[in-house]
């Protein structure tokens, strides 16, 4: 088991944390070796089946078998809540995930779609890109044609990659539905709109004053081609308002060095652009295959984002909190007795402050009262004896 010390590195300058390249390389090698072993086992079982009976064309299954996706799993300490960071984005990586020449690309654009079709069909547009873009469809036609679940499922199966104009990317969530956004083919944003510049600087437009002409303006052929090629060579990123996200960084066809380089590029892009507080907000980083265990490449040594979030308590307070119920009851009883003692002391002080009579006067009063009581007692006894004697004599005389 890998300890947390071996996958956490602190530096004295710059970012307080960084990836351990040797750890990333070891994890990449082990993961790819494990995926290849599983693929070999599946091939052996598939060969045994073909000996029993002829199968249909399994070219699609073989392609997916040898091109299993590898994911970077990100875990943050706090939820990602910034709406700008939750928008779909992309990170440049050194080794493209879409290098296949037989790649089928669907480009979803803002209206009108005819303008983009003309750009793709232009002679100045690169041939290696136009041959892979099999469909260009506008947003209004997408809504009209693909309303049913079955039609969307068919569209998803027909193409390998979906690119979308960044001006309509947020509207596609409701239009394409969960069939798209639960898969690994979520639309990748691409900037193909015309950008107005003054003195070489981009002019920001007020979204409230935006007109329909702004949506119909597209960039030049060279810029559109450059942006599409850039999007195909990037790793798509779409974070959720949660603490966990997965970003595809490679496939089982990659070498360990290629996978490690892509992982390092994606981690740098996430900490620089997508994660609030950067490294301070990252709890863990893992890599995994589609059906494998996650292998750690970085683990945080603390669970807080800022040092100010940690409150240091006195030792006595900590002991009191960690004590059991009996100790709490004893403490409460002690506090009650102390309170009672203090109350009695206060009352005695109040009494002591009252003015007292002189000692001689008190003694005289007390002696007088005692003497008076003794006289009354003697008188009462004498009267009682007299009544008793008289009563007896009377009874004798009657009898």
TrEMBL record:
Low complexity bias spans: 1-13, 377-389
Family annotation (SUPFAM superfamilies): Ribosomal protein L1 (SSF56808)
Ranges of biased composition (kind: Basic and acidic residues): 37-47
Pfam families, A to Z: Ribosomal_L1
Region (Disordered): 1-62, 323-399
Biased composition regions of type Basic residues, renumbered to the chain: 390-399
Biased segments, Polar residues type: 14-28
Protein name per Swiss-Prot or TrEMBL: Ribosomal protein L1
Species of provenance: Aspergillus nanangensis
């Amino acid at each position: 088991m890998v300890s947390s010390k071996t996958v956490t590195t602190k530096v004295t300058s710059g970012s307080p944390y960084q990836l351990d390249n040797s750890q990333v390389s070891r994890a990449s090698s082990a993961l790819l070796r494990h995926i290849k072993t599983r693929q070999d086992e599946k091939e052996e079982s598939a060969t045994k089946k073909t000996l029993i009976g002829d199968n249909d064309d399994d070219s699609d299954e073989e392609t997916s078998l040898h091109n299993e996706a590898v994911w970077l799993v990100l875990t943050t300490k706090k939820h990602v809540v910034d709406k700008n960071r939750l928008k779909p984005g992309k990170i440049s990586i050194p080794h493209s995930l879409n290098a296949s020449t037989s790649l089928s690309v669907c480009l979803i654009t803002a209206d009108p779609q005819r303008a983009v079709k003309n750009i793709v069909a232009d002679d100045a547009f690169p041939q290696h890109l136009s041959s892979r873009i099999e469909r260009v469809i506008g947003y209004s036609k997408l809504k009209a044609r693909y309303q049913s679940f079955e039609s969307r499922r068919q569209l998803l199966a027909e193409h390998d990659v979906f690119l979308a104009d960044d001006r309509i990317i947020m509207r596609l969530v409701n239009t394409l539905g969960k069939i798209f956004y639960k898969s690994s083919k979520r639309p990748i944003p691409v900037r193909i709109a015309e950008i107005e510049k003054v003195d070489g600087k981009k002019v920001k437009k007020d979204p409230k004053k935006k007109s329909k002409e702004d949506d119909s303006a597209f960039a030049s052929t060279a810029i559109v081609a450059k942006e599409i090629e850039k999007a195909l060579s990037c790793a798509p990123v779409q974070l959720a308002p949660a603490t966990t996200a997965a970003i595809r960084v490679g496939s089982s066809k990659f070498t360990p060095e290629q996978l490690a380089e892509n992982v390092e590029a994606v981690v740098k892009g996430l900490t620089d652009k997508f994660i609030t507080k950067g490294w301070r907000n990252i709890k863990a980083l893992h890599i995994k295959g589609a059906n494998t265990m996650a292998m750690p490449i970085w683990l945080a040594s603390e669970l807080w984002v800022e040092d100010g979030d940690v409150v240091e308590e006195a030792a006595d307070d900590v002991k009191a909190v960690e004590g059991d119920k009996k100790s709490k009851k004893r403490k409460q009883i002690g506090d009650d007795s102390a309170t009672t003692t203090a109350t009695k002391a206060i009352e005695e002080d109040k009494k002591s402050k009252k003015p007292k009579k002189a000692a001689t006067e008190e003694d005289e009063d007390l002696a007088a009262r005692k003497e008076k009581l003794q006289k009354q007692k003697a008188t009462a006894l004498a009267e009682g004896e007299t009544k008793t004697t008289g009563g007896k004599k009377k009874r004798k005389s009657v009898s």
